[in-house]
Write a structure and sequence with these properties.
mainly alpha, about 45 residues
Length: about 45
């Protein structure tokens, strides 16, 4: 999903979602959103 789509789904501004995604990527050492999704799927 795009940042805009995520924001609409959870009632947050697009910029807030972008910031949250960036922070999560930093903490999980992911370089792309795809890599982030793979890492998240592995951690389940």
């Amino acid at each position: 999903m795009t940042n805009k789509q995520i924001g609409a789904a959870v009632f947050l501004a697009e910029g807030t979602v972008k910031n949250y995604v960036s922070r999560i990527m930093e903490k999980l050492h992911a370089h792309t959103r795809t890599e982030l999704a793979l890492r998240a799927a592995r951690r389940r």
